[in-house]
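Look over this record before class:
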Amino acid sequence: MPMRITNNMRYTSIVDNLNRAQNKYSSLMEQMSSQKKINRPSDDPVGTTRVLDYRSVRESIAQYDRNIENASAWLELTETRLENIGDLIAEARSAGVNNQSSETSQILAQNVGSLLEEILSLANSKFGDRYLFAGSATGGDPFGRIILPVANSANAFDGSVRSGGSYTGTEDKTYTVRIASGGAAGTATYEVSEDGGTTWGAAATVPASGTVSLGDGLSVRFGDDGTTELTAGDLFYVNAYPGGRSTDARIDTPRAAGNNGFAGTVALDASSGTYGGDRNRSYAVKFVGAGAVGEADYRISADGGKTWGAVQTASWGSTITVDDTPGQELVFSFTASGPTDVLAENDLFFVNAYAPGVYSGNGEDLSVATGRGSQMTYNVTGEEAFTDRGRGAVDLFAALESLKTALEQGDREGANAQVALLTTAQDGIRQYVAESGSRMRSLNISKENYQVLDNKISGLLSETEDVDLEKIAVEFKMQETVLQSSYTMAIQIGKMTILDYLT
């Protein structure tokens, strides 16, 4: 029996078609407005997943690109500053070679002093608000004005000599120490001049400690290593500068990590000796078990937490030996703030020890992610480039200071020795320049590769979610016609009477 199509059914169909046409029309209008095929997940669930994946990849590329740009800018400035320093070292070498007379030597000494200040300023260069050559300790200048003792090249004494104290004077001054009678510390005598050797003070005995007071807060210490006795006629110079600092070893006050459970205090014990290590170190003590002071287990790190020693049981009472190496004796002393104060697991205590020298940064590398699982070191530390703990094994500032003093004192042999050291330092600087350039080229290649990849992903993303404006314009026009026809039919339905629905 044939199905009878009533007017009511026709009306319902027309209304449904009208709703579909309106929805399609609205969808096309939204696509034309956004120029996107996918404006919500329901538009295309599979396509939405692809779009999210593509966008995630592009976000990663954008982050790597920013990392590369920052690292490249850092390396570019590093390369420039190192080249500048290399050029200034070359000028200082020329001054040392060209000392022909006492008059010219004095002028050349002044020139070397000016070059030293320029190099010091470049070594304290900043990238933004971070110091370029400070390692990871980028918040403070890595080099301060130096106060270094210089020995005359003709000296028979070849033991160690170091400056100490803080200069309280208000003007530049050259102290000269002359050994009046030879012998070991406690026996030898010395004289001090505050005008470069023009006048001399009364002779006095070198203290048994080997430390001689110069005045204005400064001292020199002879024979830390106990190698050679002092010899009559030996000369030592100390160039003092207002605001300058000596190069004695020092140890910061021990500190506790902010999230420690232990609420007591930690300090260097009286049994700690003067730090005599050959490089700056960050020591750390980490507790691996809870307990009262004198009971908990711990581990020690001598490299700032990179590696840790074996677990030790605390049988030391209220102290712990961080480093018992001769010359590096460091002992922590713990004091509880109350009877219930205990050490908790993962409590961390650390201290920074600085070797004799002018560098107050650290030797830590700065690295940045340049890809998944890929890191690039982008800094050169001042410890590497300018101290005797670097590749060239030359303390650049000590060599410059010694050259200046040798020129002032007419010590031609001493000047020649420093020129040789500066040549080595300059060669080392050139190697760091070359390495910085090589790293920049590698980063630029990565950046170019990421640009190619980003373009490809961008194309796939566009293919997935972007509309074909020409095509959709035609489709929109057609749908507009369909919608208009649906409106016309709906109007005709509206003119029907109740009798039409009853037939």
Q: What stands out?
A: The chain has four domains: 7-35+467-502, 45-138+366-465, 147-248, 251-354. The helical segments are 7-34, 45-97, 102-123, 382-386, 396-408, 412-465, 469-494, 498-502. Residues 7-35+467-502 form one domain. The first strand starts at residue 126 and ends at 127.
